[in-house]
Each structure stands twice: as C-alpha cells, then as structure tokens.
Amino acid sequence: MNIVVVGLGSMGYGAASNCAKAGLSTWGFDLNSASVERFKAEYGQATNDWNDIDVIDAVVLFVVNAQQAESVLFDSPLMSKLSADATIINCVTIPPSKATEISAKVLDAGFGYVDAPVSGGAGKAASGEMSIMASGAPESMSIIKPIFDAISANVFDLGAEAGNGSRMKLINQLLAGVHIVSTAEALNMAASYDMDLQQVFEIITKCAGNSWMWENRGPHIVEGDYTPLSTVNIFVKDMGIVTDEANLKGVATPLSQTALELYKEASESGLGLEDDSAIVKILAQKSGVKVPGMD
Amino acid sequence: MNIVVVGLGSMGYGAASNCAKAGLSTWGFDLNSASVERFKAEYGQATNDWNDIDVIDAVVLFVVNAQQAESVLFDSPLMSKLSADATIINCVTIPPSKATEISAKVLDAGFGYVDAPVSGGAGKAASGEMSIMASGAPESMSIIKPIFDAISANVFDLGAEAGNGSRMKLINQLLAGVHIVSTAEALNMAASYDMDLQQVFEIITKCAGNSWMWENRGPHIVEGDYTPLSTVNIFVKDMGIVTDEANLKGVATPLSQTALELYKEASESGLGLEDDSAIVKILAQKSGVKVPGMD
Q1: Whole-angstrom Cα distance, residue A156 to residue B199?
Q2: I need a labelling partner for A57 at 20 to 30 A (CA). Which of A65, A199, B33, B34 fits?
Q3: Would you state the CATH architecture of domain B167-287?
C-alpha cells in the first residue's frame, strides 16, 4: 500500500512519521520545501511535486481547511495517480455538510472515502496515539486499518455515513474552544487578585472547575509560554465552523459565539500564530491586568 | 467541642451527619422543621431555636448566601452562646470582599473565623469527602481540624487571610458555571443533528472537549433527568458573584456574563429549582430542538 500524507504540519508530520515507522510505504507531501526536506531526511520519501509519485493507494489529508482539501483532491494531479480501489482519508476539521459533499464526489469518481477528523493535539500525533472520529463504508474502513493502527490509540467507528465523524469533531471543538477561553478567563480573574497562579492551577485541577483544556493549556498561561502548539487561528477557523453550522440550523450557541469573537479579536491583534492560550492577553488588556508573558 | 451546623440543605446535612458520625457533639440547626426532625431522628440533636443550645464552640455555616450568613451571625442569639475561643467556619459561597468584612467583625468580637468554601457537591458532602478552600489564622485552623477531618478529603490551606478561600471558590465557580452551560450547548447542538447523545457523551469523555462538569452533568441531560442535585438558582447566585466582582474590578469575563444571562433566563422561566443542567431546555427552546426530558 503506497500512502501519501498531504500536509506536514504538526499533526500531519506526526501521522506520516508513524506510518513510515510502522513499515508502510509512505510519502510526505507539502508545498513547504523545509518540511519536505525534513521528512525526506528522517523517513526517506517526500515531495512537493505529484509527478514524483507513480501510484497512490491511500491519501491521508492533514491540510488546514476544507478549501485546501478540495483543492488537493480536485484541482491537482492526485486523482489521476490513484489506484483502482484507493481510499481518501480526510483528517481535516471541516463542516459536516462539506464532508458529505466531498465524500459524494470521491465516491462518484469510484474511490473510497473516510471522514476521519482527529483529536489529541501535536503530542498524540507524534506518539501515534491520536483519537479518530471515523465514518465511512465498512470495506474502506477495513482497507485503511493498518494506517489507523499506525497513527491512533482510539478509533471511534461512527458508521458508514460521511459527516458523522465531522459532526462529532464539531461537538468536540465547540467544547474545546470554549474551555480554552474559560481557562483564560479564570486565570485572568485570578491574576487580577494577584493570586498565585500555579497554586490556582493545582487546586482547580482537583475541583469541579477542571477540564481537559484547563490541564493542558493552563500551564501555558501560568508559565507565560505562548509557543504555538495549536494556534489562535485554528480556533478562529474551528469556532467559525461551529457557529456557521449553528447559525444555518438556527441553533443557539451563545458561548461559542462569545468565544469566536475573542479568537477573532486575538487574531486581528496579531496573536493569530501564537498558541491559542494567548487569548488570555486579550482579556488581560481589556481588564488592565498583567498576566505572565505580557510585556 | 460543641458544634452547630447551620443550614441542613444537601451540603450542610452531609457535613453535620459526618461530624456526628465522627463522634463530635453536633447540633443541626435549620428553620425548616422537616430537616430538623430528620437530623434529630438520625443523629440526635437538632433544633430551630437557639435557646435549645447552651454553649457553642464551633459554628459551621451552610446557609444559602452572604445575607443569610450575616443574619445568622449578627442578628440572632448565636453570638451570645459562643464560648471564649469559639470559631466560625463559613462554608457559604460569598463575595471575597464580604468574607473579609464578616471575618473582621467576628475577629473584633473576639472569636476565630475561617473562610472555608467547599467543592464536590452533595455526593461528596454525604460521604465526608468535600474539598475545602480554607483561609484563617493558624490557631483557628488547628482548633477546627477535627471538623475538617470529619467532613473533607482535601483541605487546601490558603493562608491566614480571610477572602483567600472565597477567591479560590470564585475562580472554581466561574469555570464550573461556564462548563455546565458548555455541556448543555454541546449536547443541544448534538441533539439538533439527531446524534446518539449517549455515544456523544462517551466519546467526548475521551477527547479534548472533556470536563469535570461534562462527566458529571452530561448524564443528567442524556437521561433527561433534571432532579435537582444542585439547582439553577445556585448558579444564578454564584455567577452573579463572579460577574459582580469582575464588574467592580473592571475585569472582562465575557463567558461568565453569557452564562449568567442563561441561568437568569432559566430561573425566570420557572426552572430555578430544577437541576442546573436544565439550562439545556432554554437552549433547546431557542433552537427549536427537542432534548431528552422535554415535553
């Protein structure tokens, strides 16, 4: 099975390297030549030119958004390189309606499609322990099992219909995106009282205010380290997907709307490429509070 | 040591019963005669009349709010019953500034004061495993240690200054109150897609969207069971404390403000005495969605 992982960012690089380590014939593909050179040096096969690859049995998409996914799939030579029963595995966070649309086009072209957004961040991608929220035809799921085995610790099989995976990811992002902001809001409030933020972090971790994001992003704020593991701009995109879908359906998502406005404000203030926990700087500025890592 | 636990609601009843079980001489006090009769039947001593009690060495306050706490302490015969080095343990969630004010009055009157809000809910209160965010003079903390040992699994000692405990509780309530709403918002969105809510609950619990409140309140919504363990009205009060303090200090708390508005709307719609997870019904109504437990 000849696999191409498209998009060698923090998630895609981890996935591609774990495919290679598992002994699968793996190509890394990225327009960025530094990423291509790095993957080539570490794992052997990488390119930014489709002509370098003869036949592709599986494509794993880790590009940034739906537009890039569509561009790779439908406006590049990729489709002409696919073998007869090749499978597209789309790990990009996209609107569920878009997953349904892309899946239909790929199935119409005679190939397999698995809607497969992931959770776990760069750390779990690197260690091959991502969670995958997957939906697609059973035969496609079966064909790509060696790839999922290489890159993930949990595969949630959500049935045959593309869109199911993306809907579950949307629910996860709604919560994750709100909880990054609640973490920032709570630590900014604590900073306004001159509380010991490390102590606040440790105590809340044992109380009812705890969350996955509190445990994961809280230390970034306590240490004032906004080195991007996942950027503000990713949540501008993902909370945008949540609120666009909600608005289309007439579903009330007041916390998501509030969080999205803050992510946008942070991005417009020049924080878009910092870690998403840097949202705390926007709250601190509004409050006349100084949080760690602010000038 | 003669202890009086004032306020035999779900938290106070649990604390009082664990004091009694630990062999401490414990009175239950409540204006509600049904609670008094129940505690008397189960543990021996309870009343709604201060004249029934001769000398008090420690008071544990579990009333509803700051106003009730002040009324019990300063507008009842309680103070006249206190022994020479009696200690007031205030477990009520109140504004930090109010904790400082009440502490000063109690210390001025010659008694000890411990600012001691709790976390863990009715379950942990019943099992004697609450977490206590405590601040007060070391000698007071030492005197009341047998009481804390009886009612709690974790005591976070936050120093001598009253207010420190209440500030930590405020940070916890900010997060807890927002996360109950985010749990409701996510499950309402999932319901709008006709997703299997039990499956959503189980998968998100293993993903980055997870929180203490998701795990605790999520099942109430999935099962449509809004039997009150902690009511909507408690969060109208607690998020009100968060936003009042934030507004006084000019601190931005946009998620807390958004959550408070929903708690208020739920309370005004007649859901005030239902479980706080019933906030999902307000979101569902706004969205034209049907969630479990709705007519």
Answers
A1: 10
A2: A65
A3: Orthogonal Bundle (1.10)
